[in-house]
Amino acid sequence: MNAVLTTPGLRHGDRYAQPENRFSLSGVDHVGLACIDPDVSGPFVEQILGGVELFRAGYNDEDRRLGRLRHIFYHVGHTMVEVVEQEDGVSYPSKTNPGSVNTNPHWAFGATPEVLARFVKHLKQEGIPFDGPRSHTGVSAVSVYFRDPDGNNMEVTTWSPIPAGLMELTPMGGKHGFIPWEGLSHQWRPRSA
Q: What is d(CA 122, CA 113) in angstroms, rounded to the nearest whole number?
């Protein structure tokens, strides 16, 4: 079995290494984001994360007759993201993280330093509250944190070195604290097409 470096001083290339999986699994096929209304959460994936719709179910008469929940799959880069309606109409974070104290679970999307800088401007233009960009001790990662309309914790991150002057960074922890998740909640609504 190949060892993976997990100590401080992680080299940039180690992040993107793909050690052989002993069960031949190829990685995460998709992530499912619990939501109250896919018709709000889906456009968030499209308009904020640049998602491209692949497939939707639970919307036609036959699916409704069968009791199939509304859900939509999107391509976000090479990751599939599914927004799926909750049977009880309550958001997952409302049950599992009502005080907004937990960072996890969260979903992180990759970017280059330049894309991350543009994404920060995009969040500002969209009125989405965010925290960051934050640097991380011991690795070259820099991240921006935000939430979707249901309160799911999100991150856009780069593991590439940040060119001088590209963006101002705040260190994670210490006198700078950690992610203020509660302050990242919002009432974003899709804009008209």
A: 14
Cis bond before residue 93 (omega within 30° of 0): no
C-alpha–C-alpha distance, residues 64 and 81, integer Å: 22
Q: What are phi and psi of 176, to 5 degrees?
A: -90, -10
Place of tokens 């309160």: 151
Nearest to 109 by CA among 56, 41, 159, 161: 159
Q: Does residue 2 belong to any structural domain of this protein?
A: no
Question: Is the confidence at residue 156, as pLDDT, over 80?
Answer: yes
Residues 81-117: tens digit of each pLDDT: 999 998 887 777 677 766 666 677 889 999 999 999 9
In sign, the C-alpha dihedral spanning 113, 116, 118, 121 is: negative
DSSP reduced 3-state for 16:
helix
Model confidence over 109-140: pLDDT tens digits? 999 999 999 999 999 999 999 999 999 988 88
Q: Which token pair is 163?
A: 């060119």
Q: Record the pTM.
A: 0.86
CATH of residue 103's domain is: 3.10.180.10
Nearest CA to 128 out of 180, 186, 181, 83 is that of 186
Domain that holds residue 46: 12-18+21-184
Say how many domains are in the chain. 1
Confirm whether 160 is domain-assigned.
Answer: yes
Place of tokens 């994360």: 49
